[in-house]
Amino acid sequence: MTDVSHPSSFAIDVPAALVDRARRGDAGAFEQLYRLFERPVFTLALRLTGDREEAQDLLQDTMLKLFDRVGEFRGDSPFWGWLRQIAVNDALMRLRRRGRLPQTEEAVDAELECHDVMLPAAAADAALLTRALGRMADATRSVLWLYHAEGYTHDEIAGLMGRTPSFSKSQLARGTRKLRELLKIEQELSHA
Length: 192
Hints:
Blueprint: H1 16-23, H2 27-49, H3 52-69, H4 79-97, H5 106-111, H6 126-134, H7 138-149, H8 154-161, H9 165-191
Helix pairs in contact: 1-2, 2-3, 2-4, 2-7, 3-4, 6-9, 7-9, 8-9
């Protein structure tokens, strides 16, 4: 993965001793790991699925997998990257099982005018951003989040989603246009 200017919320230094304690089954170590990663896992799951209940289920599933698989962590990469990969795989698998991942924004984009405008100042407002992301197709929202927030490359996203890098690039471009439009609409509604 390439370096990004905005590191993932998962980028938490985890002492090797804490991971070793978890490998030995230390309940306190698991509790510490849960507390460290509860928010990043939930946020990632929410952004990929667009559903709070589903995100909560994914948080629990990911943490159970951490408990079951911590012995598989080899230490050749940061612990946070290993756990993030479990969370991403779980979220995308859930979307695939529900038949939600293949959906794209092509039809919706045809209805939107394409404006080359800067993101409105309201984009910084988390509530507006959450609502706008919630109105996007799962595949598009997932590509946007994985690329911008988690720092995945188009090749990595393509591999995760079982698609091509051009699929990732097109979803990112379409999603960016749609996000600009949705944020503009949300901003206008909040000022009305």
